[in-house]
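I need you to check the entry underneath: sequence plus fold tokens. Let me know what the token row says about the fold.

>
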Amino acid sequence: MKDFASKMQFEEAHKIKEKIEVLENYQSRSTIVSPKITNIDVFSIVSDEGAAYINFLQIAHGSIIRSHTMEIKKKLEETDQELLTLAIIELRERFQLLSKEIIAPFEVEVGEMLKVTVPQLGDKKELLELSIRNAKYYRIEQLKQLQIVDPDRHTNRIMAQMQKDLRLQIEPRHIECFDNSNIQGTNPVAACVVFKDGKPSKKDYRHFNIKSVEGPNDFASMEEVVYRRYKRMLDENQPLPQLIIIDGGKGQLSSALKSIDALELRGKIAIVGIAKRLEELFYPGDSAPLYLDKKSETLKVIQYLRNEAHRFGITFHRDKRSQTALNSSIESIPGIGEKTMLVLIKHFKSVKRLKLATEIQISAVVGASKAKKITDFYKTTN
């Protein structure tokens, strides 16, 4: 450019200047890495039950000049090492890569002429982590599209992943989760929520009033409700779940197992307990808990089940406490009998709503005479 300018050939000099600007803009848009790293390729892999996702980064002169992610559908029981090796060979041929060194998350057999680096720290480790993030992001985007385009395939993939992660003999198409609620030691109740194909089946949810246990005893309550649930299902020839989840640790799981054994269902239904604090999964007869990846879809489904069971149980517990409080409140009103009490409970649902109601609103439900007795009673007790 300077040579053309010195010769007064300004038009040619301007053309060269434009080319320089294009090159500078291209370089500024590339991710800059250490200038010491040059002519090297990075490969990473993220996989699940159905597919592997391989990301490739090409590094030249301290910049990332190319990034590409590919998906490989699994047809056999291939390992990540086998799939990554195949992908490296294919990508190097497709993009005509000539680098003498590659970065990978583990050792791969790609010939003696190519150096394989498995970095533990530093700039090369950061490049590998960037490549892994790219693969994970691509996988998430592909799964989002799959959920929209082919929901059945999406469900099948999650079921297969849960079977593998939880070490089950069959896919957990039907899962039931139990939770106890006895806030402040009163009105002990339990909830059972049901998921089918990884989604809530709310018509199958069940509440339980604890009948055989006096006072707050979560272990005995769990034993009772698990027995009642599956005794009834057996008596009615209903299909049993493939997986039972107990919201609680070893103690709760042991209590549930007593009922499973009493009904001779051990080995016919898989059962695990999930501890609240560390998301530990406990299996019968196994002292060491299983920890799932915090971002895994299996753990997300289990957490969804547990949260649904907790929500469903708490709602029922609150309703029951409100009804108990309403019963005791109405029973103490002079001149109000059991029949009237039931009508008021059904209509007003809670003591607070009854107290806030006007005499006219109450009279519309039980008549003017009784409405006056109720409003007069609450005036004197407030």
About this structure: The chain is about 50% helix and 20% strand.
